[in-house]
Amino acid sequence: MLDPKRTVADLKELRALTGDENGAQRVAFTETWVQARQWLQGKVQTIPRVETHRDEAGNFWATLRGESEKALLMGGHIDSVPNGGWLDGCLNTMAAVEILRRFSAQYRGKPPVTVRVVDWTDEEGARFGKSLFGSSACSGNLDMNEARGLTDKTGIKLPDALKEYGIDFERVKDSRKELRNAAAYLELHIEQGPVLLDLDLPLGTVLGTFGVERHAITFRGQAAHSGSTPMNRRKDAFLAAAKMSAEIYRIAERSGNGVCTIGSCTTKPGIVTSVVEECRITLDQRHLDAVALEKMYREARAASEQFAQEGKIEVSWERLWQIQPILFDEQLIALADEAIAETGAPPHRLPSGPLHDAAEVAHAGVPTIMMFVQSLHGISHNKIEDTREEHLEMAVTAFDKLADKAMRWIVGR
Ligand SMILES: [Zn+2]
Questions:
Q1: How big, in percent rounded to 5, are the helix, strand and coil portions of the chain?
Q2: How many C-beta atoms surround the C-beta of residue 146 within 10 A?
Q3: pLDDT at site 353
Q4: Which of 101, 108, 160, 211 has its CA 20 to 30 A from that of 315?
Q5: From the CA of 135, how far away is ligand 1's center (Å)?
Q6: Ligand 1 centre and the CA of 193: distance in Å?
């Protein structure tokens, strides 16, 4: 039967094997990652009637064939960032492995539907700077031209690095066939933010992942001597940019749950004795609702034009990146709420700021849901990442209940 303490023990074993005093070191396409994968393979092989294989994108699959070909998928990623936390990604994988053990034991190796655990390749993108590699290859969403040109900091190209690990870059999208019978995808993850912590809740149901609008905004005024130019004669590009800084807080507040960040600011000529001629800022805006995201973007644009006009300067916008919000399946959201409530915790729904493999699977059209467990300190991608052990055990229990409900949901469809 389900043993949530075994998941915690597995995670500690993995930490001892692949971490050091600076944290987890399971960066994808490194020896430590291979070691972690071999360890995972060893764990899964002890479960009766489970078959394993690696797909064309290097994703690791453990499959327990059921009465029906329709498959319940549970996923995670054993790779980490350098000096990463002990739970990000591998909690998902190891909770899913525990639930696979439970399904195998309960149904003597033949559950009503096929149950599969997937460990995605290179979720973090730590070595090549591009996250969600394995899941985006599988969903068909990976931009092959962009990925072909990616290099790590020593100049090694992604396709060459993949070859070393037995992966043929040109065939990674053949992994799409793995989703053929996928009827639902479930993912448990540490929250990586402070929302559940601040509400004092152990678990949350994830509504979807934020859409993103990312732009560079350039204000152009006129350089002028800082001593000889009266204040009322200046065309100060920095002044308009500075007004944007306060304005984005008002825009985010009006939007409900959106967030806006000015992450960089560069000035020209950038010397102490000149009014700023040119100021370039970047603006990152995120919201779960596509209409609200569009409104945040338009408001920021209008504000920048107003500030430019007030300062008698010019402004131009350049889009750096954009992604639509991805909403998870409404019926699975309701089942996740039920599973959390039955574990004795109040259900709570929240969006995800970071992207996850689950977003790729949802994008491929598979009904998808995520569950979050509280993150102490609200911090991730850091060796101090942590979750209380009783919350980890609750998370495995609630996730198992969700898996059971999702299986019955698949059977009933
Ligand atoms: Zn993760």
A1: 40, 25, 35
A2: 10
A3: 87
A4: 211
A5: 12
A6: 12
DSSP 137-198: HHHT---HHHHHT-B-TTS-BHHHHHHHTT--GGGGGGGGGGGTTEEEEEEEEE--SSHHHH
Interatomic CA distance for residues 39 and 46, integer angstroms = 12
Q: What is the mean pLDDT of the chain?
A: 96
> How far is the CA of 305 from the CAs of 117, 235, 243, in angstroms?
50, 14, 11
Query: Residue 87: what pLDDT?
Result: 96
- 166 C-alpha to center of ligand 1: Å? 24
Kindly report, residue by residue over 317-362, the tens digit of the pLDDT. 999 888 899 999 999 999 999 999 999 999 999 999 888 999 999 9
pLDDT value of residue 332: 98
Residue among 353, 345, 362 nearest 204 (CA): 345
Tell me how far the alpha carbon of residue 74 lies from the centroid of ligand 1, in angstroms.
14
- CA 342/CA 174 separation, integer angstroms: 40
Measured between alpha carbons, how far is 386 from 376 in angstroms, rounded to an integer? 5
Indicate the residue type of 333: I
Which helix (H) or strand (E) element contains residue 45?
A: helix 31-45
258-297 pLDDT, tens digit each:
999 999 999 999 999 999 999 999 999 999 999 999 999 9
How would you classify the pairing of strands 203-209 and 326-327? antiparallel
pLDDT band of residue 27 (cuts 50, 70, 90) is very high
For residue 410, how far is its CA from the centre of ligand 1 (angstroms)?
A: 26
Mean pLDDT of 66-73: 98
pLDDT at 379: 86
| Ligand 1 center–CA 274 separation, angstroms | 45
Output the six-digit token pair for 331.
């019926």
- Backbone torsion region of residue 29, taken as left when φ is above 0, otherwise alpha when ψ lies between -120 and 50, otherwise beta: left
CB 75 within 8 A of CB 115: no
Mean per-residue pLDDT for 15-38? Answer: 97
Q: How far is the CA of 88 from the centre of ligand 1 (A)?
A: 5
Ligand 1 centre to CA of 234 (Å) is 48
Asked if 237 and 219 count as a contact pair (C-beta separation under 8 A), the reply is yes
